[in-house]
Design a protein that fits this description.
Length: 299
Protein backbone atom coordinates (compact mmCIF):
# COMPACT_ATOMS: atom_id res chain seq x y z
CA UNK A 1 0.00 0.00 0.00
CA UNK A 2 1.16 3.53 -0.76
CA UNK A 3 1.52 6.21 1.90
CA UNK A 4 0.55 9.87 1.51
CA UNK A 5 1.38 12.75 3.83
CA UNK A 6 -1.83 14.69 4.43
CA UNK A 7 -0.33 17.50 6.49
CA UNK A 8 -1.00 20.85 4.83
CA UNK A 9 -3.44 22.70 2.61
CA UNK A 10 -4.98 21.03 -0.45
CA UNK A 11 -7.16 23.14 -2.80
CA UNK A 12 -10.06 21.15 -4.30
CA UNK A 13 -9.66 22.76 -7.68
CA UNK A 14 -12.37 23.97 -10.05
CA UNK A 15 -12.70 22.47 -13.52
CA UNK A 16 -12.50 25.24 -16.14
CA UNK A 17 -14.77 25.18 -19.18
CA UNK A 18 -14.66 27.07 -22.47
CA UNK A 19 -17.70 26.86 -24.71
CA UNK A 20 -18.98 24.05 -22.52
CA UNK A 21 -15.86 21.89 -22.93
CA UNK A 22 -13.18 21.17 -20.34
CA UNK A 23 -10.31 23.62 -20.90
CA UNK A 24 -7.33 21.43 -20.07
CA UNK A 25 -4.78 24.13 -20.88
CA UNK A 26 -6.43 26.55 -18.45
CA UNK A 27 -6.60 23.77 -15.86
CA UNK A 28 -2.86 23.16 -16.17
CA UNK A 29 -2.14 26.89 -15.83
CA UNK A 30 -4.27 27.14 -12.68
CA UNK A 31 -2.54 24.16 -11.11
CA UNK A 32 0.91 25.52 -11.95
CA UNK A 33 0.08 28.85 -10.26
CA UNK A 34 -1.48 27.25 -7.19
CA UNK A 35 1.51 24.95 -6.80
CA UNK A 36 3.73 27.97 -6.08
CA UNK A 37 1.72 29.18 -3.07
CA UNK A 38 2.91 26.80 -0.36
CA UNK A 39 0.11 24.25 -0.69
CA UNK A 40 0.81 20.59 0.04
CA UNK A 41 -1.08 19.08 -2.88
CA UNK A 42 -4.09 19.26 -5.18
CA UNK A 43 -7.51 17.61 -5.05
CA UNK A 44 -9.07 17.08 -8.47
CA UNK A 45 -12.68 16.08 -9.19
CA UNK A 46 -14.03 17.18 -5.84
CA UNK A 47 -17.31 19.02 -5.30
CA UNK A 48 -15.78 22.28 -6.54
CA UNK A 49 -14.56 20.45 -9.64
CA UNK A 50 -18.14 19.82 -10.81
CA UNK A 51 -17.21 16.16 -11.05
CA UNK A 52 -20.85 15.07 -11.22
CA UNK A 53 -21.11 16.93 -14.55
CA UNK A 54 -18.10 15.23 -16.17
CA UNK A 55 -17.97 12.17 -18.37
CA UNK A 56 -15.59 9.35 -17.46
CA UNK A 57 -13.25 10.41 -20.25
CA UNK A 58 -13.27 13.98 -19.00
CA UNK A 59 -12.50 12.80 -15.46
CA UNK A 60 -9.50 10.86 -16.69
CA UNK A 61 -8.33 13.80 -18.79
CA UNK A 62 -8.55 16.06 -15.74
CA UNK A 63 -6.49 13.69 -13.57
CA UNK A 64 -3.90 13.25 -16.31
CA UNK A 65 -3.61 17.01 -16.79
CA UNK A 66 -3.35 17.84 -13.09
CA UNK A 67 -0.72 15.16 -12.48
CA UNK A 68 1.28 16.53 -15.39
CA UNK A 69 1.03 20.11 -14.12
CA UNK A 70 2.12 19.71 -10.47
CA UNK A 71 5.80 19.87 -9.46
CA UNK A 72 7.57 16.56 -8.96
CA UNK A 73 6.61 15.04 -5.62
CA UNK A 74 3.43 17.06 -5.09
CA UNK A 75 0.55 14.62 -4.51
CA UNK A 76 -2.70 14.70 -6.44
CA UNK A 77 -5.82 13.33 -4.76
CA UNK A 78 -8.65 12.16 -7.02
CA UNK A 79 -12.33 12.45 -6.22
CA UNK A 80 -13.19 9.04 -7.65
CA UNK A 81 -16.37 8.15 -5.79
CA UNK A 82 -19.25 6.52 -7.64
CA UNK A 83 -22.48 5.16 -6.23
CA UNK A 84 -21.44 1.51 -6.56
CA UNK A 85 -18.35 -0.17 -5.18
CA UNK A 86 -17.43 -1.73 -8.52
CA UNK A 87 -17.46 1.60 -10.37
CA UNK A 88 -15.61 3.34 -7.56
CA UNK A 89 -12.90 0.69 -7.68
CA UNK A 90 -12.60 1.01 -11.45
CA UNK A 91 -12.34 4.80 -11.49
CA UNK A 92 -9.96 4.82 -8.51
CA UNK A 93 -7.67 2.27 -10.15
CA UNK A 94 -7.71 4.28 -13.37
CA UNK A 95 -6.88 7.44 -11.40
CA UNK A 96 -3.99 5.65 -9.73
CA UNK A 97 -2.70 4.53 -13.13
CA UNK A 98 -2.77 8.17 -14.21
CA UNK A 99 -0.69 9.22 -11.20
CA UNK A 100 -3.16 10.07 -8.43
CA UNK A 101 -1.70 9.35 -4.99
CA UNK A 102 -4.95 8.94 -3.03
CA UNK A 103 -8.72 8.81 -3.53
CA UNK A 104 -11.30 11.06 -1.86
CA UNK A 105 -14.59 9.20 -1.60
CA UNK A 106 -18.00 10.55 -0.67
CA UNK A 107 -20.40 8.06 0.83
CA UNK A 108 -22.99 6.48 -1.50
CA UNK A 109 -26.21 8.38 -0.93
CA UNK A 110 -28.74 7.81 -3.72
CA UNK A 111 -30.33 4.96 -1.77
CA UNK A 112 -29.83 6.89 1.45
CA UNK A 113 -32.37 4.97 3.50
CA UNK A 114 -30.42 1.76 2.99
CA UNK A 115 -26.98 3.20 3.72
CA UNK A 116 -26.63 1.75 7.21
CA UNK A 117 -23.33 1.72 9.07
CA UNK A 118 -22.96 -1.92 8.05
CA UNK A 119 -23.50 -1.10 4.37
CA UNK A 120 -21.08 1.82 4.49
CA UNK A 121 -18.38 -0.20 6.24
CA UNK A 122 -18.76 -2.93 3.63
CA UNK A 123 -18.59 -0.39 0.80
CA UNK A 124 -15.49 1.41 2.03
CA UNK A 125 -13.57 -1.69 3.09
CA UNK A 126 -14.33 -3.40 -0.22
CA UNK A 127 -13.04 -0.40 -2.13
CA UNK A 128 -9.99 0.01 0.11
CA UNK A 129 -9.15 -3.68 -0.26
CA UNK A 130 -9.15 -3.43 -4.05
CA UNK A 131 -7.41 -0.17 -4.94
CA UNK A 132 -3.65 0.52 -4.99
CA UNK A 133 -3.77 3.99 -3.39
CA UNK A 134 -4.93 5.21 0.04
CA UNK A 135 -8.58 6.08 0.58
CA UNK A 136 -9.84 9.26 2.27
CA UNK A 137 -13.41 9.34 3.50
CA UNK A 138 -15.38 12.46 2.60
CA UNK A 139 -18.15 13.69 4.86
CA UNK A 140 -20.16 16.34 3.00
CA UNK A 141 -23.76 16.43 4.29
CA UNK A 142 -24.49 19.53 2.19
CA UNK A 143 -24.52 17.36 -0.93
CA UNK A 144 -25.16 13.82 0.31
CA UNK A 145 -27.76 14.88 2.92
CA UNK A 146 -26.24 12.21 5.17
CA UNK A 147 -23.48 12.27 7.78
CA UNK A 148 -20.73 9.74 8.35
CA UNK A 149 -21.10 8.87 12.03
CA UNK A 150 -18.13 8.97 14.36
CA UNK A 151 -18.64 5.26 15.09
CA UNK A 152 -18.48 4.37 11.39
CA UNK A 153 -15.39 6.50 10.85
CA UNK A 154 -13.72 5.04 13.94
CA UNK A 155 -14.25 1.52 12.63
CA UNK A 156 -13.02 2.37 9.16
CA UNK A 157 -9.95 4.16 10.54
CA UNK A 158 -8.57 0.77 11.54
CA UNK A 159 -8.31 -0.31 7.90
CA UNK A 160 -4.68 -0.09 6.73
CA UNK A 161 -5.64 1.54 3.43
CA UNK A 162 -8.14 4.08 4.80
CA UNK A 163 -5.86 6.90 5.78
CA UNK A 164 -8.07 9.86 6.70
CA UNK A 165 -11.22 11.92 6.30
CA UNK A 166 -12.19 15.29 4.91
CA UNK A 167 -15.03 16.74 6.96
CA UNK A 168 -17.06 19.48 5.28
CA UNK A 169 -19.87 19.60 7.82
CA UNK A 170 -18.46 22.70 9.54
CA UNK A 171 -19.38 20.99 12.82
CA UNK A 172 -16.38 21.17 15.14
CA UNK A 173 -18.08 18.91 17.66
CA UNK A 174 -18.21 16.17 15.01
CA UNK A 175 -14.60 16.87 14.05
CA UNK A 176 -13.67 16.40 17.71
CA UNK A 177 -15.48 13.07 17.75
CA UNK A 178 -13.58 11.92 14.67
CA UNK A 179 -10.31 12.93 16.33
CA UNK A 180 -11.18 11.28 19.64
CA UNK A 181 -12.47 8.00 18.29
CA UNK A 182 -10.21 7.28 15.31
CA UNK A 183 -6.83 5.59 15.26
CA UNK A 184 -3.62 7.54 15.85
CA UNK A 185 -2.45 7.07 12.25
CA UNK A 186 -5.75 8.37 10.85
CA UNK A 187 -5.67 11.95 9.52
CA UNK A 188 -8.60 14.32 9.97
CA UNK A 189 -8.72 17.27 7.56
CA UNK A 190 -10.96 20.32 7.71
CA UNK A 191 -13.23 20.65 4.68
CA UNK A 192 -14.61 24.12 5.38
CA UNK A 193 -12.46 27.24 5.29
CA UNK A 194 -14.64 28.89 7.90
CA UNK A 195 -13.48 26.49 10.60
CA UNK A 196 -9.86 26.00 9.52
CA UNK A 197 -8.43 27.68 12.63
CA UNK A 198 -10.78 25.77 14.93
CA UNK A 199 -10.12 22.43 13.30
CA UNK A 200 -6.35 22.86 13.33
CA UNK A 201 -6.48 23.92 16.97
CA UNK A 202 -8.29 20.68 17.81
CA UNK A 203 -5.68 18.58 16.03
CA UNK A 204 -6.61 18.35 12.35
CA UNK A 205 -3.52 17.89 10.17
CA UNK A 206 -4.64 20.19 7.37
CA UNK A 207 -7.48 21.25 5.15
CA UNK A 208 -9.07 20.57 1.76
CA UNK A 209 -10.70 23.94 1.25
CA UNK A 210 -12.58 25.77 -1.50
CA UNK A 211 -11.12 28.92 0.05
CA UNK A 212 -7.64 27.72 -0.89
CA UNK A 213 -8.47 28.20 -4.58
CA UNK A 214 -8.62 31.97 -4.10
CA UNK A 215 -6.64 32.54 -0.87
CA UNK A 216 -4.09 29.71 -0.77
CA UNK A 217 -1.38 31.72 0.95
CA UNK A 218 -3.76 32.88 3.66
CA UNK A 219 -4.82 29.28 4.34
CA UNK A 220 -1.20 28.16 4.49
CA UNK A 221 -0.41 31.05 6.83
CA UNK A 222 -3.20 30.09 9.22
CA UNK A 223 -1.85 26.54 9.35
CA UNK A 224 1.72 27.70 9.94
CA UNK A 225 0.69 30.18 12.63
CA UNK A 226 -1.22 27.47 14.51
CA UNK A 227 1.79 25.19 14.31
CA UNK A 228 3.92 28.03 15.73
CA UNK A 229 1.45 28.58 18.57
CA UNK A 230 0.65 32.09 17.37
CA UNK A 231 -3.08 31.69 17.88
CA UNK A 232 -3.94 35.39 18.03
CA UNK A 233 -2.51 36.11 14.59
CA UNK A 234 -4.01 32.89 13.20
CA UNK A 235 -7.41 33.88 14.59
CA UNK A 236 -7.16 37.33 13.04
CA UNK A 237 -6.37 35.85 9.64
CA UNK A 238 -9.21 33.36 10.01
CA UNK A 239 -11.69 36.13 10.80
CA UNK A 240 -10.52 38.11 7.78
CA UNK A 241 -11.09 35.11 5.50
CA UNK A 242 -14.57 34.19 6.75
CA UNK A 243 -16.46 36.56 4.39
CA UNK A 244 -14.40 35.28 1.47
CA UNK A 245 -15.12 31.68 2.37
CA UNK A 246 -18.84 32.39 2.66
CA UNK A 247 -18.85 34.09 -0.73
CA UNK A 248 -17.22 31.19 -2.59
CA UNK A 249 -19.22 28.48 -0.82
CA UNK A 250 -22.63 29.03 0.76
CA UNK A 251 -23.55 32.41 -0.76
CA UNK A 252 -22.52 32.16 -4.42
CA UNK A 253 -21.22 28.58 -4.68
CA UNK A 254 -19.10 27.35 -7.56
CA UNK A 255 -20.21 30.26 -9.76
CA UNK A 256 -18.89 32.67 -7.16
CA UNK A 257 -15.70 30.68 -6.71
CA UNK A 258 -15.02 30.85 -10.43
CA UNK A 259 -15.78 34.57 -10.54
CA UNK A 260 -13.32 35.17 -7.69
CA UNK A 261 -10.69 33.09 -9.48
CA UNK A 262 -11.06 35.27 -12.58
CA UNK A 263 -10.47 38.36 -10.45
CA UNK A 264 -7.38 36.93 -8.78
CA UNK A 265 -5.39 35.85 -11.82
CA UNK A 266 -6.65 32.31 -12.29
CA UNK A 267 -9.03 31.10 -14.97
CA UNK A 268 -12.46 30.47 -13.52
CA UNK A 269 -14.83 30.90 -16.40
CA UNK A 270 -18.40 29.71 -16.31
CA UNK A 271 -19.73 26.60 -14.63
CA UNK A 272 -21.36 23.85 -16.65
CA UNK A 273 -25.13 23.81 -17.00
CA UNK A 274 -27.38 23.46 -15.08
CA UNK A 275 -25.28 25.75 -12.85
CA UNK A 276 -25.52 29.37 -13.93
CA UNK A 277 -22.68 31.92 -13.98
CA UNK A 278 -22.47 34.69 -11.42
CA UNK A 279 -24.46 37.78 -12.31
CA UNK A 280 -22.90 41.21 -12.69
CA UNK A 281 -24.37 42.11 -9.30
CA UNK A 282 -22.85 38.99 -7.75
CA UNK A 283 -19.47 39.78 -9.27
CA UNK A 284 -19.52 43.31 -7.91
CA UNK A 285 -20.21 42.07 -4.40
CA UNK A 286 -17.57 39.34 -4.68
CA UNK A 287 -15.03 41.94 -5.79
CA UNK A 288 -15.89 44.10 -2.77
CA UNK A 289 -15.43 41.12 -0.45
CA UNK A 290 -12.03 40.33 -1.96
CA UNK A 291 -10.96 43.96 -1.61
CA UNK A 292 -12.07 44.14 2.03
CA UNK A 293 -10.14 40.93 2.75
CA UNK A 294 -6.96 42.39 1.27
CA UNK A 295 -6.83 39.85 -1.55
CA UNK A 296 -7.54 42.33 -4.33
CA UNK A 297 -6.51 45.93 -4.80
CA UNK A 298 -9.36 48.43 -4.95
CA UNK A 299 -9.80 50.14 -8.30
Amino acid sequence: MQIIDLHGIFPPIATPFENGEVALDKLADNVAKLSQTGIAGIVALGSNGESVFLSEKEKRDVIRTVVGAVPDGMPVIAGSACESAVETIRLTCDSADLGARAALLTRPHYYGGKMSDTALRRFYTTVADNVPIPVLLYNVPKFTHLTLSAATVAGLSEHPNITGIKDSSGNLNLVGQYLNESGDAFSVLVGSGGVLFGGLSLGCVGGILALANVAPRACVEILELVHQGNYEKAKAMQLRMIPVNLAVTATYGISGLKAAMDMLGYFGGEPRLPLLPATDEDRAEIRNILVRAGLLLER
